[in-house]
Design goal:
By secondary structure, this protein is an alpha/beta fold. The protein has four domains: 122 residues, Chitobiase, domain 2 (2-Layer Sandwich), CATH 3.30.379; 277 residues, TIM Barrel (Alpha-Beta Barrel), CATH 3.20.20.80; 75 residues, Immunoglobulin-like (Sandwich); 137 residues, Jelly Rolls (Sandwich), CATH 2.60.120. The protein is built from 18 helices and 32 strands. The strands form six sheets. It has an eight-stranded parallel beta barrel with strand order 7-8-12-13-14-15-16-17, surrounded by six helices. Strands 25, 26, 27, 28, 29, 30, 31 and 32 form an eight-stranded antiparallel beta sheet that branches. A six-stranded mixed beta sheet has the order 1-3-5-4-6-2, covered by helices on one side. Bound molecules: acetamide. The site of acetamide has 4 residues, from loops.
């Protein structure tokens, strides 16, 4: 922040005025403080300033809290603020009402038992865009729930709520010019989105149909939400999907689709000028309701198939000299942008808007990883980072077997927190300036109730908030973890039905091929956590070894570890097989095709000592669209006793167990003898995340160890690790 130069100025308004009831002169011990997001600078000086909560959060004007607005000409970051808290009083300095608001949020978090700890805070956000996204189409959440989320967001200094208002699940706000959007396609036959989407009766129902599921925001609802957000220094960014994800529009107004029929297309007919009239009409009403600088026009996952044969789309392509249908999508987004710019607004869209050519001033929301964001920033476009593998809050946050059904993925809070929105290795310093910020997305295909929504959003949204606010150099998981734990009861006190953090343990390994050992590290989300473990596969007790840093495995261990509280084991123990086995880093030959997208780091992925975890995306699991057929060279003919290999199944994204696994051995690498076959025990329609270890035991002499795993379903098989003893 720039240095402040202050105009002394009292701010009217009860919320902003703090009065000091009397200050402690006693030098107290420094109180444990848990601020989220962590301020850019916070120095606790000891002692407290005693004040009355009524006076602090809504009392009468007082001359004890000094609020000073700085000279605007000298303003630093408009969201920044300074606090000086002494036993005598509180001095709050900011360059805008937003800064004052954020200072008050900090005071709110500092306040406990009638006092605020003394100290100095100098604070300003790292990014101007600190967002959450909510899908109200797949399941509808009423304005009361949105306002509840806005209350929590404000306390954590999040300042953008991206509302996904339209999609196949139902259109969710009133449009005067197109009344059928809500009258005919805001309700549907089934509340459970998946059942509805996959079922025989996937239909919309007219508003008022008894038993229909759905809902929408009236214009008045939206005005109230927008005003409520603005009071909390939050901007609501509406998203209206073009040209894809528009099944509901094209059912209400089939004339805007390529087929002209309801329930056929998901993409607007770009060759039909009426689609553009609809777009401009709807965006006009959207801009009347939402004052946000950015209007989100979707752009993701258009199917584009109908365009290939639609006479109108083909005629437009010919007229405009377009070479592929990507350019049709780009054409629509360009026109959306021109329209928004003409009204003084900016277009933002999902990273597919890069396809076929990015509109000149578009901002890109990068969700399919960071690549789209990196490309856009290199082209000089602004970017909001929201890569699925870190920022999707609808993904699992703990072992799926302990969680409500989710869309897949795995983004526990530590993973979310680890994300840095600035890809420093890929962008120059100038290009990095185009990263406006970060957003956590909650899609609601599998989330039907406000309680479930809050459970998925919180506490992970607090990690997003700190990523968006706190300087990267100050962010460590070790610092965040205890503060996060301290905020769970705060969230609960706000009636947020949050996930209360996992009792599972994160297991990481460090394979040391020089010392020929594996160091196993355990970490808990809970803090403090007394972790006890065994290495022989038995369930730990309160008398088992206390985890104190790392567990060194030189041969074979079956680690079972758990958190203990008051002598009681919490939750389900975490298990991990760890082997510094004889196959580690031996040469491997693959007889079949490898899949470049899932190499898990390369040719030794199956023999590196690192075991795949709960997600096939963790860089340990090797994935194949073919049988796995590979042979390991042990270097010389040797005694072998036990060989195993593990596979995972997760049918949602198309990952299946092999039908069977066969072990073969050979002395010369040419003539192989079968040593047995192990069939899978996991049904191919089992919807759960499921693992199977295929184990072979015997007494063999051989140099080559060959594994053949038969891929019998379409989709992938994923393996890790081959363990050879
Ligand atoms: C998205 O998740 N389709 C943006």
């Amino acid at each position: 922040m720039k240095p402040f130069r202050f105009l002394r100025q009292w701010i009217a308004g009860s919320l902003l005025v703090v009065s000091v009831a009397g200050c402690s002169n006693i030098q107290e011990e420094k109180r444990q403080v848990s601020l989220i997001p962590l301020p850019a600078s916070w120095e606790q000086t000891g002692g407290v300033c005693r004040i009355d909560s009524v006076e602090l959060f809504g009392g009468r004007p007082s001359d004890k809290l000094k609020i000073e607005l700085e000279d605007r000409a000298e303003a630093g970051n408009p969201e920044g603020y300074r606090l000086e808290i002494t036993t005598a009083g509180i001095r709050l300095q900011a360059s805008s009402q937003t800064g004052v608001f954020y200072a008050m949020q900090t005071l709110r978090q500092l306040y406990a038992d009638g006092s605020i700890p003394c100290g100095r805070i100098e604070d300003a956000p790292r990014f101007g865009y600190r967002g959450l996204h909510l899908d109200v189409s797949r399941h509808f959440f009423p304005k009361e729930e949105v306002m509840k989320l806005l209350d929590v967001m404000a306390q954590y200094k999040l300042n953008r709520l991206h509302l996904h208002l339209t999609d196949a699940g139902g259109w969710r706000f009133e449009v005067d010019k197109y009344p059928k959007l809500t009258a005919e396609t805001a309700f549907r036959t089934e509340s459970d989105w998946r059942k509805w989407w996959d079922g025989k009766d996937r239909r919309y129902l007219p508003e008022g149909t008894p038993g229909a599921y759905g809902g929408y925001f009236t214009k008045q609802d939206i005005r109230e939400m927008v005003a409520y957000a603005a009071d909390r220094h939050i901007e609501i960014i509406p998203e209206i999907e073009f040209p894809g994800h528009s099944e509901e529009v094209l059912t209400a107004y089939p004339e805007l689709s390529c087929s002209g029929k309801p329930y056929v297309n998901g993409d607007f007919c770009v060759g039909n000028e009426r689609s553009f009239r609809f777009m401009e009409d709807v965006l006009t009403e959207v801009m009347e309701l939402f004052p946000s600088k950015y209007i989100h026009v979707g752009g993701d996952e258009a199917g584009k198939n109908a365009w290939k044969t639609c006479p109108k789309c083909q005629a437009l392509m010919k007229k405009e000299g377009m070479k592929d249908v990507d350019e049709l999508q780009s054409y629509m987004i360009h026109r959306a942008e021109a329209f928004l710019l003409s009204k003084g607004r900016r277009l933002i869209g999902w990273d597919e808007i890069l396809q076929g050519g990015l509109a000149p001033e578009a901002t890109v929301m990068s969700w399919r990883g960071e690549d789209g964001g990196i490309r856009a920033a290199r082209m000089g476009h602004d970017v909001v980072m929201t890569p699925g593998n870190y920022m999707y809050l609808d993904f699992y946050q703990a072992d799926p077997k302990t969680q409500p059904y989710a869309i897949g993925g795995y983004t526990p809070v530590k993973k979310v927190y680890s994300y840095n929105p600035v890809p420093v290795d890929s962008l120059t310093i100038d290009e990095q300036k185009h990263i406006l910020g970060v957003q956590g997305n909650t899609w609601t295909e599998y989330i039907q109730t406000p309680e479930h929504l809050e459970y998925m959003m919180f506490p992970r949204a607090l990690a997003v908030a700190e990523i968006g606010w706190t300087p990267q150099s100050l962010r460590t998981w070790e610092s965040f973890k205890p503060r996060l734990n301290a905020h769970i009861p705060r969230l609960q006190a706000m009636d947020i039905h949050c996930f209360t953090l996992s009792d599972e343990l994160e297991v990481t390994m460090a394979v040391d091929t020089v010392e020929k050992q594996i160091s196993v590290l355990l970490d808990a989300e809970k803090y403090p956590a007394e972790i006890r473990y065994t290495t022989d596969g038995t369930t730990p007790t309160a008398a088992s070894a206390l985890y104190e840093g790392s567990i060194v495995v030189k041969d074979s261990a079956h680690i079972v570890a758990a958190i203990f509280r008051d002598g009681q084991l919490q939750g389900t123990p975490t298990e991990k097989a760890v082997d510094y086995h004889r196959g580690i880093n031996r040469p491997i030959h693959y007889y079949n095709r490898l899949y470049s997208g899932y190499m898990a780091g390369g040719m030794n992925a199956l023999l590196d000592g690192y075991r795949g975890g709960l997600t096939y995306l963790d860089g340990r699991w090797q994935g194949y669209l073919d049988n796995l057929d590979c042979a390991v060279d042990m270097g010389e003919v040797t005694d072998l006793h036990k060989v195993s290999v593990r596979f995972m199944q997760l049918i949602g994204p198309g990952v299946f167990q092999p039908g069977q696994v066969e072990l073969l051995t050979s002395d010369d690498g040419e003539h192989y003898t079968s040593r047995g076959v192990v069939p899978t025990t996991i049904a191919p329609d089992n919807p759960d995340l499921a693992f199977q270890t295929y184990t072979f035991q015997g007494e063999w002499k051989a140099r080559y160890v060959r594994i053949k795993a038969a891929r019998v379903q379409g989709g992938f098989i994923f393996a890790d690790e081959i363990v050879i003893w």
